[in-house]
Specification:
Blueprint: E1 4-12, E2 18-27, E3 32-36, H1 43-50, E4 58-63, E5 66-67, H2 73-79, E6 80-83, H3 96-106, H4 111-124, H5 140-152, E7 158-162, H6 170-182, E8 186-190, H7 194-200, E9 203-208, E10 211-217, H8 218-224
Parallel strand pairs: 3-8, 3-9, 6-7, 7-8
Antiparallel strand pairs: 1-2, 1-4, 4-5, 9-10
Bound molecules: adenosine-5'-diphosphate (ADP) (2 copies).
Keywords: ATP-binding, Cell membrane, Membrane, Nucleotide-binding, Translocase, Transport
Protein name: ABC transporter ATP-binding protein
Domain ABC transporter: 4-225
């Protein structure tokens, strides 16, 4: 099965605001896809369905064939690695090692296996040397990379990033782009940074007014937008 399959997803908030009007999409394993669209288009609402924060009003979401639902939430949250826009919402332990270990420890990983997970995740983001430092001593760009490591330590099926390039200087942007390109994982990134989408994502989706308005190679989608 694809990493992500969304079928006929519609959702209205309790106040009646209809945010999604029948979204269909599939993302294959290993694809890197940008999710673009104006403010209010429904991007956040869609992302909140991918790990079960919101429950579909109509339609369904599957991650690697497993339907998102009340009985599968634990496994879905392991499979869907959400990286928030602000890394400081994700890092709350005294040391980087504890932050990166938190997710897998919560799944029951212990001892040498846990140490190996932490080392591997920090190596994937190019920061093996910061394990024993407090996150707040790192630069913003390093904190964002540690936030990526905290979800990689769960060995997710799909990495979902909210505005990954925001607030990064050019060097940090480039470093993060190289890291994301090097990972052997499916990536979905919500972004307003069109050059970043073009550089990193072979495919882009435009969400507009709660529907998918475009889906194709990033260069073509941006040329038509
Ligand atoms: P985006 O992330 O693309 O900016 P959102 O998913 O945040 O879009 O919003 C989609 C629509 O849903 C907008 O009309 C927004 O005002 C509305 N919306 C978002 N969150 C809520 C909420 N908690 N209650 C009511 N309406 C909401
Ligand atoms: P983003 O920039 O990620 O799209 P927004 O600025 O649209 O986020 O929304 C920020 C927060 O406000 C979100 O938690 C969203 O659910 C909430 N929100 C957005 N629109 C509404 C609304 N009309 N009513 C209530 N909450 C809303």
């Amino acid at each position: 099965p694809p990493s992500l399959r969304v079928r006929e997803l519609a959702y209205a908030y309790p106040d009646g605001t209809q945010a999604l009007f029948g979204v269909d999409l599939a993302i294959g394993r290993g694809e890197r896809v940008a999710l673009l669209g104006p403010n209010g288009a429904g991007k956040t609402t869609l992302v909140m369905h991918l790990n079960g924060i919101l429950t579909p009003g109509h339609g369904s979401v599957e991650v690697a064939g497993l339907p998102v639902g009340p009985d599968t939430l634990r496994e879905i949250r392991r499979r869907v690695g959400l990286v928030f826009q602000d890394p400081d919402d994700q890092l709350f332990m005294p040391t980087v090692r504890q932050d990166v270990a938190f997710g897998p420890a919560n799944l029951g990983v212990r001892g040498a296996e846990l140490d190996a997970r932490v080392r591997e995740a920090l190596e994937l983001v190019g920061l093996p040397e910061v394990a024993d430092r407090p996150p707040h001593h790192l630069s913003f760009g390093q904190r964002r990379r540690v936030a990526v490591a905290t979800v990689l330590a769960m060995r997710p099926e799909i990495l979902v990033l909210d505005e990954p390039s925001s607030n990064l200087d050019p060097a940090a942007r480039r470093e993060l782009a190289e890291i994301l390109r090097s990972l052997d994982v499916t990536v979905l990134m919500v972004t307003h940074d069109l050059p970043y989408a073009l550089e990193l994502c072979e495919r882009s989706l435009i969400l507009s007014g709660g529907v998918i308005a475009a889906d194709g190679p990033t260069g073509e989608v941006l040329a038509d937008a």
